[in-house]
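batch_manifest entry 22 of 60
target: Alpha-type protein kinase domain-containing protein
source organism: Patiria miniata
requested by: lab member K.T.
priority: normal
notes from requester: please return tokens only, no post-processing; we will run our own comparison against the previous entry in this batch. if the run fails, retry once and flag.
--- input ---
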Amino acid sequence: MGSYQSNTSKGFRLTSTWVEFEDDWFAQGASRRVYRGTYHGNPEKEGKRCVVKVYKEEWFDNIEEYAWKVDDRAYLKATEMAQLFKVHAAMYRTSIHHEIEFVKPEFTSVDTCASFRLFGFLPMNKKVKGKLPYTRDSVKNVIPSNASVLVERYLEGDYIKFTSNTGFVDPQKGALPKAFSHFTYHASGGQILVSDLQGVSNGTSYTFTDPAVLSGGTQLGFYGPTDLGKYGIVKFFQKHICNELCERLNKPTITNVTPAEKAVFDTIVNNMPDKKSSTYTYQLSQSSDVPKSEVENIQHNLKLESILEE
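--- output ---
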């Protein structure tokens, strides 16, 4: 009487690999909904599990300018810092493990959405988990046609949120991740700080996914919706307690700011959500009652100087 069609992606660029993913998302952030998926089309990956992140409609309309490029930019910067940190950590005789890698994302777009074809040719859109928890909606309303997709390999092991992008640190397992974040600020000359570190550890190495890269430049959100910029950098150092891997690493000092701007900056930082989960750029204005334009202007004008504290 009919046939079932799953959610699928188009092939990855220059490869035959594509993915099939479940009807219902299991997590979501500001820009994407996350699904469990399976690789196909590649003998080495066939049938292996993956994580499929589908960009929401408001994020894929300008794909060439924003949606997937900021995520790729964040991954590349975080990977660059991980490679430098390995060299840095090797200089110290320490019990803290220092192998770090970031999962490489692949980018493509939606090919087909879940549906039932009555008599083999009459498509009927399936009802799936809606945009909000505990709701149901047509798959076409939840997964827009040709939406952008980010695919990552599934991480085996206990998934842990080691740090957040507002200074949270897991008290038992966060020693290396927080030292790595401090190092990224130092090694980049204050240009960035990699935070929001989550993933798995096997006791000798860490594999992280979906990092937040906080920009010390003039543009808030340059590395995506979790880039809290200079506000996030200052918040990190307000809460950071250095360990042996932080020896002789620079910290930020605020310069080139008026007393009035400094007061507003402090208001924004002090009112940032203090939580384990990720915080998004739009929440800086919401939590502090400071207009979005003023939040962006202070990010543009304020300077952070990377210096070594004696």
